[in-house]
Design goal:
Strand content of chain A: under 5%
Radius of gyration of chain A: 19 Å
CATH superfamily of chain A: Phosphate transport system protein phou homolog 2, domain 2
Order of helices and strands of chain A: HHHHHHH
Number of domains of chain A: 1
Shape of chain A: elongated
Structural class of chain A: mainly alpha
Oligomer: homodimer
CATH topology of chain A: Methane Monooxygenase Hydroxylase, Chain G, domain 1
Distance between the termini of chain A: 52 Å
Number of helices of chain A: 7
Number of strands of chain A: 0
Largest interface: A-B, 54 and 54 residues
CATH architecture of chain A: Up-down Bundle
Largest sheet of chain A: none
Chain lengths: ~230, ~230
């Protein structure tokens, strides 16, 4: 019974990682579309959304079935709780890819412009956060999960810089406002991807350590929330 | 045993509603700060954040304890699953209030300006969505929850209009870019509040009907996601 249960938990983790792969691929495609202005990549992102949504439902149902039938305790209960939360975050990573692709679609109708925000760099960093948070899940490695939290500060700082640089740009060159505001929104979408990776890392820590680190370092969390918007 | 269990479920629901009240109050204060430029209201929002975070932890812990000790099935299991998800959404509503208050702080250092986005109206609508989604939880009323989903389209449309009106404004009056871009971000924060209310309504429907409506109406959900960014 227990052997079967742990086989089911492994299977659930595998499905969650497939879900993660789909969400991550969607973000990568949306950024590649931004870089190359290739609208077929946007279409691929839109098309992948229903598959990601189906996966979310499947993973949640598997987790609920295990909760109901196996009545797990302690670490296994925390794992299923973490899976439910991580699954929701991954689905929202996929939503951000859709949002970015929609911005890119609009931007391709506008003249190409030099903008003071390095979207591919921001995307690399927030994607690295997602990958690392999932690696910490695979390895049950809470130390690695903690390192994801530190990366979030860097994403927030880049986003804050982008906000001020874009404000300054549109004052100097108002004609570029349509492109600049789209890029601003894309930067914020990527920041939200980083926020989801942070959530995932916190859930891994709760699962592994049994300790809830959400909002535990108050100064840090307050700082993050305030900076997140600037 | 069962009587005690249902007493515990009622208590859990009550705590979740306290959590909701705190999150809602924070949004109202942040918008009142926007309207009146009263920075003491921003401070109240920042100060309320730790309390909201503590409530999130408490509610999650109560739900996990009930899952572990009572091993609920079917409708009760779905209820606890819904509580966990709704709780996370409410905490993020509180985060949006913090984000708005931070924008308002920055705006008070800038000259007051007439902006083409009715932030209080957008706030009223998204707050109404949160209240209605919670009312549907209290009454176990899935019909009411469905009506929240329709309201989200209105919020998204208002936000899309705001994006284009603000782009147009900064092209005409580039000096207003700092204020305008802050208002744009606040509008998007409020749209996220509406998204959280939508998530809550979907969780109520899943609990009451046992049917997962997330992404079920594909055309609607795709439309929503694409419009959400514009």
């Amino acid at each position: 019974m227990r052997v079967k249960f742990h086989k089911n938990l492994d299977e659930l983790k595998e499905r969650l990682l497939v879900m993660a792969g789909l969400a991550e691929q969607a973000v990568q495609r949306s950024i590649e579309a931004y870089r190359t202005r290739d609208l077929s990549l946007c279409d691929l992102v839109f098309q992948s959304e229903p598959a990601i949504n189906r996966f979310e439902r499947e993973v949640d149902q598997m987790a609920l079935d295990l909760l109901a039938m196996e009545q797990p305790m302690a670490v296994d209960l925390r794992f299923l709780y973490a899976v439910l939360r991580i699954n929701a975050d991954l689905e929202r990573v996929g939503d951000q890819a859709v949002n970015i692709a929609a911005r890119v679609q609009e931007m391709t109708a506008q003249a190409s412009a030099e903008l003071p925000v390095d979207i591919p760099k921001l995307a690399n960093l927030s994607s690295a956060m997602v990958r690392k948070s999932l690696q910490s899940l695979i390895e049950a490695n809470s130390e690695m999960a903690h390192s994801v939290l530190a990366m979030d500060d860097e994403v927030d700082a880049m986003n804050s810089d982008a906000f001020h640089a874009i404000t300054e740009l549109v004052q100097r060159k108002p004609d570029l406002a349509p492109q600049a505001l789209n890029a601003l929104i894309i930067a914020r979408n990527l920041e939200r991807v980083g926020d989801h990776a942070t959530n995932i890392a916190e859930d891994v820590i709760f699962w592994v350590e049994g300790a809830d680190v959400r909002h535990s370092s108050d100064s840090r969390s307050e700082k993050r929330d305030v900076e997140e918007t600037s």
